[in-house]
């Protein structure tokens, strides 16, 4: 198990595993990109490499292979969990290279389409996703580009949709404060504001969270565009 913020990430290999289709002929050409042994190479590079370009490329490859609802995408999302790859990608969110952070965010967004992955990413990656947002009291503040901030916001939204526990985690980690600031401060781009507003609407959609949020001083209007 990889350590994540001092805790072991409880990736349960037995939960909802999806097996790769059995082959009758050897893989060739572009098919080689999405065979189980190649996926293991990507995971091993994510865990072992110290080179930003390799980390970015590996996370980017996983993001692309996990996109959409094709059969191999489903298999790779499950394989990443079985091979303990989720925490390796979540760890990249703290990397010094912005390009690595953006690639990791994109990969997590596509991995979270799998419900078991979504649950694990919600528990363990939300704090690092929130740290990549502008504003709040953290010091030193990260100053990431519009594209990266939008990617992080879209990933947060993907993770908290149909995932109350992740929405609670977002609230516990200064996330609401940062989202409202993006939405209302007037100095963020239209794309960032739109992406933050989407997350805020998702949070307010949870009736269970409204009372606790109101107790903290938030109003319904804070969660509207």
Please report the first level of CATH classification, the CATH class: Mainly Alpha
Assembly status: single chain
Low-confidence stretches: 1-14
End-to-end separation in angstroms reads: 41 Å
CATH level 3 topology: Leucine-rich Repeat Variant
Mean pLDDT: 86
Percent of sequence in beta strands = under 5%
Indicate the topology.
Blueprint: E1 3-4, E2 7-8, H1 36-48, H2 52-65, H3 71-82, H4 86-91, H5 98-111, H6 115-124, H7 126-131, H8 146-160, H9 164-172, H10 175-184, H11 190-204, H12 207-215
Antiparallel strand pairs: 1-2
Describe this protein with a few key phrases.
225 residues, disordered N terminus, mainly alpha, 59% helix, 2 strands
Describe the structure.
Belongs to the beta-catenin family. One of its GO terms (biological process) is cell-cell adhesion. One of its GO terms (cellular component) is cytoplasm. It holds the Pfam family Arm. This is CTND1 protein. There is one protein chain. By secondary structure, the chain is an all-alpha fold. It has one domain: Leucine-rich Repeat Variant (Alpha Horseshoe). It contains 12 helices and 2 strands; from the N terminus they run E-E-H-H-H-H-H-H-H-H-H-H-H-H. It has helices at residues 36-48, 52-65, 71-82, 86-91, 98-111, 115-124, 126-131, 146-160, 164-172, 175-184, 190-204, 207-215, and strands spanning 3-4, 7-8. A two-stranded antiparallel sheet has the order 1-2. Helix 5 (98-111) packs parallel to helix 8, helix 6 packs across helix 8 and helix 10 packs across helix 11. The longest helix has 15 residues, at 146-160.
